[in-house]
Q: What sequence folds into this?
């Protein structure tokens, strides 16, 4: 009897080229809200939930007063959502993303889109990807209070796949994906499409590092997942 396996797929930066859209819109939102921060500090936090991103960046911006932090945080999150929506037309599907999901499904894998993106942002990505016929389950930010590296969203994705951790593979573009997956005993594969370096990927615990989703499909076709 063949063991059922599951592919848990991050979306932003893994299937959809949205990482730098998030970076730019967070930088713009925080600056307008009164807490300018460098692009690099934002980039290194993409993949975490918005509240955590803002709290950490307010520390970097040197905002200490609790009342001021609360005001800036609320304003920045609202502006980020507004600016990100304005950039929706600039989003693109990353190389091999559709083929990976389709190929995995055709080879008998259960496919789960494991994201903690807000429902509105996920809806845009989902429409752009146009792969619903090959997706078995999804998660969104409505399912959790905290995003990766907290493992809860990956745990929910695993539960919805119906397989054991040993039979699942997590694919992502951020160190948080591997950290979350490792906590659950799930093997993880990194794609470089989010702009993170290989040394950071290795330190986070990824077992494989490849260029993009197309290269993940190559691993799958070669029986290396």
A:
């Amino acid at each position: 009897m063949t063991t059922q396996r599951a592919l848990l797929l991050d979306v932003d930066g893994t299937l959809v080229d949205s990482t730098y859209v998030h970076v730019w819109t967070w930088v713009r939102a925080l600056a307008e809200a009164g807490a300018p921060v460098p692009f690099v500090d934002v980039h290194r936090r993409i993949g975490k939930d918005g509240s955590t991103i803002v709290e950490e960046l307010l520390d970097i911006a040197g905002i200490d007063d609790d009342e001021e932090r609360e005001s800036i945080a609320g304003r920045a999150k609202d502006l980020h959502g507004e600016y990100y929506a304005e950039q929706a037309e600039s989003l693109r599907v990353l190389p091999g993303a559709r083929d990976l999901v389709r190929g995995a499904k055709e080879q008998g894998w259960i496919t789960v889109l494991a994201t903690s993106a807000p429902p509105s942002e996920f809806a845009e990505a989902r429409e752009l990807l146009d792969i619903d016929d090959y997706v078995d389950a999804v998660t969104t930010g409505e399912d959790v209070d905290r995003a990766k590296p907290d493992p809860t969203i990956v745990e929910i994705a695993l539960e919805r796949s119906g397989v054991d951790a040993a039979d699942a593979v997590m694919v992502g573009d951020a160190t948080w994906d591997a950290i979350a997956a490792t906590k659950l005993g799930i093997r993880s594969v990194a794609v470089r499409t989010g702009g993170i370096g290989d040394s950071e990927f290795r330190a986070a615990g990824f077992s494989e590092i490849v260029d993009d989703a197309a290269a993940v499909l190559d691993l799958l076709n070669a029986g290396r997942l």
Observations:
- The longest strand covers residues 110-114.
- The mean pLDDT is 96.
